[in-house]
């Protein structure tokens, strides 16, 4: 997923502004990015499902007013565990490789941890080396392989991050 | 849909439903929603919806946006119905009034159908592959065109046979798209006659071929026989191209029917038909040269990407015609295989089927398990795997012949008298039979699914062990003076318990190594994975050794009672080759564990902490299922840490496990001289051991001193024992 050098945009990391989901005006920005970059098609209902129920888990990254990345998540009870789920993570090509995705997803994961999640999961295409490396650095393991998971016929990995049990307060 | 009439009634007259098929209860009541819906229609903007509390992600994801080409499968069609397509001349009969072109187009249709069939087998829906053929969708229309009709009929019958094999096998857990035939005309009348129809057409063309050969050698043409088409120069080539295609279909259909015969009775005939299929496929491939050269017009684009041998686009196909029949999901992007790739697919499928057909019908369970694992190594596709599974487990018996109790009997080396013993009626024994049957089924599934099933399955094996042990104690634990029968029972239980343990560790071993095949482990996790593998292998080797000792004992008892010769005693004290084989695995696993631990402890790059959790959490996640089933007992994260924290380059230098592995591999090879599969495995083990032994020496000498040393792990010699690569950066 490495972008070609000529496509890269010159910028300072400090110029990137991270914003928590702030309302309907952010929705078209998120939809545009995801639609451009991810293989799966999602209806507006899917986006709203996430950002209405868990606005605190979605973040956007801006560079000079332009939205260059976003993360969309949820959390809830799953088979007796309280689990966070990263649904979509996108950074547009010219801005990749500079830690924007890591920063976005780290913010979401921290929120999940603080909200009492025991683990975080997501699916990634087995061919998406960039994403796999990113989540690997954050402590995710590849828990399962899902055969022909995506509409395009590619297998997926189910990635999982298990938080350490919270320390007992005496 | 049970409440649909109610809904309609309610919405039409605005009255409360009188005939509610779902009755109101204490907490629910039927109410008229029409005023709310009407108000909503006026008030809702684009993309808004009204939903209940139970609106979830699945519901949200099930919504499709009309007119969005990524989601709306309806908007991308050329035709709205099959009839409309036919009226517009998309699938004419005859295909052309020019008989030469008509024949060429028929061959194109045959080739494209083959490509579609392969794409279907490879995971696309039947509706968007084979049934994108308009002729197939309205098969009766083709009746006047004997050639096309016979081919389409056998295709339909073949698809039906394949669907039934795959659905019966139920190995397709995540490949459910395969058997979805909703709305497709798969069940036609008279398909049982497809072979006789095909034979008649084949007979006619063979006569036409003979006739044209006779003409070319200036002999007289039989007057009653029309040539296939009008161009005499092309007659022979066309006849031949058609004959191999028709014959391939015929033999392939026979292969499927033969393999379905009960108790493996048709396997020998199946092999003959497989051989014929392969011969016809060769002729089909050869016909491409003729088909490409017989017309002056040449096709654009790379011939290798085309779905026909001639390179022409086939007539009568529309992949989007059925897209509305596919499940409530967005349309899948379908890439039909090229004709060349399709032929390759069928060659591979036929070879896989041949491997299945040529295996013994009376195998020992241990070798059967090895056979299935070996078979899976060639990555057979769904159709071949389903056939294997259906053959292995028929009517609850192995190959439909041996009850699983008898199979276990043989495998666990139980005394001869067990066969008629009442013990087989014991509940736990019956369950054990089921477990073995399920094990065989699971081993036939795709690797991803297989690993998940095996992981959960371990728990069942552990439970059955505990149950058997309990039954054993209850019945025989307190008997001091034992009769002969009780002695037999005791023996049966002891053997069975040992055997169950051996199988459990074998499954655990499979579970762990499938993780390598599926690329589930990252380099940072190799240390714990090899450590766990080592722990499981130790137990497996131990149980295998014990099992071999007791079966040797049983075998000896079965033979004539004679005094143990010194030679026998010497043989017994030796470690059996099968155990040495495992010993070689153990050395490699231990060697890799220790090297990885030393690297992690001495070089900072190998120890990169993650921000949210530690190695402990990763250990818990990777081995959760094994830990839950106590496989092996007393193995935990602290014991892993204990055995790896002290590893250093200096300790590594003191013992080279790889040298042991290399020596054992070399020694034990001669014991497997008639087992090519394990011999090949031993050669690979020897190579890994040799490489890693050298790498370990280099790391020990330079590791701590040379910061430019880069160590990486590759699976170039063996699928799950990594080769250590040392480089200077």
TrEMBL record, chain A:
GO terms for molecular function: protein-N-terminal amino-acid acetyltransferase activity. InterPro entries: Acyl_CoA_acyltransferase, GNAT_dom, NAA30-like. Signal peptide: none annotated. GO terms for cellular component: NatC complex. PROSITE patterns: GNAT. Pfam families: Acetyltransf_1 (PF00583). It comes from the Eukaryota. Residues 14-164 form the N-acetyltransferase domain. Keywords: Acyltransferase, Transferase. Belongs to the acetyltransferase family. MAK3 subfamily. This is N-acetyltransferase domain-containing protein. It comes from Gossypium stocksii.
From TrEMBL, chain B:
Residues 47-186 form the NAA35-like N-terminal domain. It comes from the Eukaryota. GO terms for cellular component: NatC complex. Keywords: Cytoplasm. Pfam families: Mak10, TPR_NAA35. Its main location: cytoplasm. Residues 356-724 form the NAA35-like TPR repeats domain. It is found in: Cytoplasm. Coiled coil: none annotated. InterPro entries: NAA35-like_N (IPR057983), Naa35_N (IPR007244), TPR_NAA35 (IPR057982). Signal peptide: none annotated. Belongs to the MAK10 family. This is N-alpha-acetyltransferase 35, NatC auxiliary subunit. It comes from Gossypium stocksii. The lineage of its organism: Eukaryota, Viridiplantae, Streptophyta, Embryophyta, Tracheophyta.
């Amino acid at each position: 997923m490495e972008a070609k050098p000529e496509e890269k945009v010159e910028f300072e990391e400090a110029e990137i502004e991270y914003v928590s989901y702030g309302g309907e005006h952010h929705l078209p920005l998120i939809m545009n990015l995801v639609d451009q970059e991810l293989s799966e098609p999602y209806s507006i209902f899917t986006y709203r499902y996430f950002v209405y129920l868990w606005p605190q888990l979605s973040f956007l990254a801006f560079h000079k007013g332009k939205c260059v990345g976003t993360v969309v998540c949820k959390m809830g009870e799953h088979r007796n565990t309280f689990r966070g789920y990263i649904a979509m993570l996108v950074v547009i090509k010219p801005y990749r490789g500079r830690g924007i995705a890591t920063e976005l997803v780290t913010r979401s994961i921290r929120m999940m941890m603080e909200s009492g999640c025991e683990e975080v999961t997501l699916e990634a295409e087995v061919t998406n080396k960039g994403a796999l490396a990113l989540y690997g650095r954050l402590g995710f393991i590849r828990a399962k392989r899902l055969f022909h998971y995506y509409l395009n016929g590619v297998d997926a990995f189910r990635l999982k991050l298990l938080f350490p049990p919270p320390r007992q307060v005496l | 849909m049970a409440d649909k009439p109610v809904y309609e009634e309610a919405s039409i007259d605005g009255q409360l439903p009188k005939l509610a098929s779902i009755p109101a209860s204490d907490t629910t009541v039927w109410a008229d929603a029409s005023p709310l819906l009407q108000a909503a229609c006026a008030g809702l903007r684009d993309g808004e919806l009204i939903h209940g509390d139970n609106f979830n992600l699945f519901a949200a994801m099930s919504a499709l946006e009309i007119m969005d080409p990524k989601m709306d499968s309806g908007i991308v069609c050329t035709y709205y119905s099959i009839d409309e397509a036919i009226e517009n001349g998309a699938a004419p009969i005859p295909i052309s009034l020019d008989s030469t072109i008509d024949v060429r187009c028929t061959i194109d249709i045959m080739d494209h159908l083959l490509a579609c069939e392969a794409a279907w087998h490879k995971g696309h829906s039947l509706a968007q592959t084979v049934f994108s053929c308009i002729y197939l969708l309205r098969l009766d229309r083709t009746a006047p065109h004997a050639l096309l009709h016979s081919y389409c009929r056998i295709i339909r019958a073949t698809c039906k046979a394949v669907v039934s094999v795959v659905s019966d096998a139920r190995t397709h857990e995540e490949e459910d798209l395969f058997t979805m035939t909703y709305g497709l005309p798969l069940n036609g009348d008279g398909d049982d006659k497809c072979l006789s129809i095909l034979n008649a057409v084949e007979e006619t063309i063979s006569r036409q071929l003979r006739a044209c050969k006779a003409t070319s050698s200036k002999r007289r043409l039989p007057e009653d026989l029309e040539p296939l088409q009008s161009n005499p120069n092309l007659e022979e080539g066309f006849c031949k191209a058609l004959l191999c295609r028709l014959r391939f279909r015929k033999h392939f259909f026979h292969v499927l029917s033969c393999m379905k015969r009960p108790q493996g009775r048709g396997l020998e005939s199946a092999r003959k038909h497989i051989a014929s299929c392969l011969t016809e496929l060769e002729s089909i491939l050869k016909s491409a040269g003729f088909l490409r050269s017989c017309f002056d017009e040449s096709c654009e684009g790379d011939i290798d990407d085309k779905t026909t041998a001639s390179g022409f686009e086939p007539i009568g196909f529309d992949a989007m015609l059925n897209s509305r029949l596919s499940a409530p999901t967005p349309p899948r992007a379908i890439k039909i295989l090229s004709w060349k790739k399709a032929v390759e697919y069928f060659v591979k499928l036929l070879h896989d089927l041949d491997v299945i057909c040529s295996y013994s019908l009376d195998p020992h369970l241990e070798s059967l398990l090895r056979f299935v694992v070996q078979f899976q190594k060639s990555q057979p596709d769904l159709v071949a795997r389903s056939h294997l599974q259906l053959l292995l487990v028929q009517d609850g018996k192995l190959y439909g012949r041996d009850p699983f109790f008898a199979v276990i009997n043989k495998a666990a080396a139980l005394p001869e008298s067990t066969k008629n013993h009442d013990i087989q009626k014991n509940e736990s024994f019956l369950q054990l039979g089921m477990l073995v049957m399920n094990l065989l089924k699971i081993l036939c599934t795709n690797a991803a699914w297989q690993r998940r099933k095996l992981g959960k399955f371990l728990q069942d094996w552990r439970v059955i062990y505990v149950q058997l042990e309990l039954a054993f104690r209850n019945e025989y634990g307190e008997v001091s003076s034992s009769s002969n029968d009780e002695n037999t029972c005791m023996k049966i239980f002891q053997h069975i318990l040992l055997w169950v343990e051996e199988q459990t560790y074998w499954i655990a071993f499979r579970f762990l190594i499938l993780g390598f095949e599926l690329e589930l482990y990252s380099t940072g996790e190799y240390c714990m994975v090899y450590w766990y593998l080592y722990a499981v292998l130790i137990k497996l080797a131990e149980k295998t050794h014990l099992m071999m000792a007791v079966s040797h004992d049983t075998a000896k008892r079965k033979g004539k009672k004679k005094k143990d010769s010194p030679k026998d005693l010497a043989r017994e004290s030796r470690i059996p080759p099968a155990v040495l084989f495992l010993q070689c695995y153990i050395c490699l696993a231990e060697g890799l564990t220790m090297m990885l631990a030393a690297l992690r402890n001495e070089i900072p790059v190998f120890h990169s902490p993650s921000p949210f959790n530690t190695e402990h959490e990763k250990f818990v996640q990777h081995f959760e299922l094994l830990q839950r089933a106590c496989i092996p007992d007393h193995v935990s994260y602290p014991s892993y840490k204990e055995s790896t924290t002290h590893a250093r380059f200096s300790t590594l230098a003191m013992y080279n496990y790889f040298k042991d592995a290399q020596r054992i591999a070399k020694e034990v090879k001669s014991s497997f001289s008639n087992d090519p599969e394990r011999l090949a495995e031993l050669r690979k083990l020897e190579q890994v051991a040799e490489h890693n032994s050298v790498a370990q020496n280099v790391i020990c000498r330079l590791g701590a001193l040379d910061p430019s040393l880069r160590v990486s792990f590759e699976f170039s010699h063996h699928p799950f024992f990594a080769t250590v690569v040392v480089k200077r950066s």
